[in-house]
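Hi F.,

I've been meaning to write this up properly since the lab meeting, where we talked about keeping a consistent format for the predictions we share between groups. The idea is simple: the sequence comes first, exactly as it goes in, then the structure tokens exactly as they come out, then a line or two of notes. No screenshots and no reformatting. I'm using this chain as the first example so we have something concrete to point to.
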Amino acid sequence: LATERGCAAEEVQFASDGDTLDDVWEARRGCYIAAMRYRGVKGGDRVFVSDVCVPVSRLAECVAGAEDDCKALGLKCVICAHIADGNFHCLVPHQPEDEPAVHEFEAKIIDRALLCGGTVSGEHGVGIGKVAHSCREHGPAHVAVQQAVKRALDPLG
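Output, unedited:
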């Protein structure tokens, strides 16, 4: 799919030392600020950040679908990823009146990720915003076990 859309990589580079890796991380951190300023709104936009992780074989399809969803909903999206493992982040600049469309967008990318054999998040932990999606992916019993472990290890929250 990437080749069909003219997006195939011509070169792959690896961060071979600490300075290069620091540069890569700095670029990733810059994605949020870029998204905040992307639409040129004075004072910047709010930025909604979500991620999904899918098998690499389905990655191009999911990224292209996310871009199409954004366009269809009248949103803009900055995609920032550690893409080699199938995980990509969608940063959606918006104003408060756009929030229903933003939440619809998140539901669409999560639905697609699950249909493609992926997961609702490729990150180290899932916040309260994705609990309902985690229940869909793993079932309420699985999430209840995770919550019981959390309460046992951190009774004060």
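Notes:
Strands lie at 46-53, 78-82, 87-94.
The helical segments are 18-37, 56-72, 99-115, 131-138, 140-153.

If this format works for you, I'll send the rest the same way.

G.
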